[in-house]
Amino acid sequence: MAARLLLRTSVRAVTACRLAPVASFTRGMAAGGVPTDEEQATGLEKDIMRAWKKGNDPYSIFKPKEYAGSKQDPHIVPSVTHQRMVGCVCEEDNTAVVWFWLHAGDAQRCPSCGAHYQLVAHELPH
Q1: Residue 113 marked as a ligand binder
Q2: Of 103, 112, 104, whose CA–CA distance to 69 is shortest?
Q3: Do 85 and 100 touch, CB atoms closer than 8 A?
């Protein structure tokens, strides 16, 4: 009995839906199409996109620029303090990391391979 009642109710619901016209959703295309990522971005994502257009990297999320590591073109190490610990993998296939303290000022050398590193001030974006 309950199954028959449930079946009859569901059949009535389906047939009622077929008779009623369904309103089409044309808002997206009528307003000029699907919005771009820049139009939809808000908050932190929007700040990053604006900075990226200007060529900045405020949150250090993009791949860093490669440097030669010489005294004239040292590896740049950003820091919010006057010193930072740096790890250098001196050879490409080396498994050991040489750790040393890098202080603000002139470029300093890695004690093992001689690559140069320079500490630069980095201000937090917030």
Answers
A1: yes
A2: 112
A3: yes
Give per-residue pLDDT as tens, 75-94: 998 888 999 999 999 888 88
State pTM to two decimals: 0.54
Annotated ligand binding at 17? The verdict is no
Give pLDDT tens digits for 60-71.
777 777 888 899
Task: Read off the tokens for 43.
Answer: 């908050």
DSSP track, the chain: -HHHHHHHHHHHHHHHHHHSPPPP--HHHHTTSSPPHHHH--HHHHHHHHHHHHT--TTS-SPPPP---SSSSPEEEEESSSEEEEEE--STT----EEEEEEBSS-EE-TTT--EEEEEE-----
Quote the Cα angle for 35-41-47, to 5°. Answer: 145
Of 72, 81, 82, 80, the residue nearest 107 (C-alpha): 72
The response to whether 110 counts as a known ligand-binding position is: yes
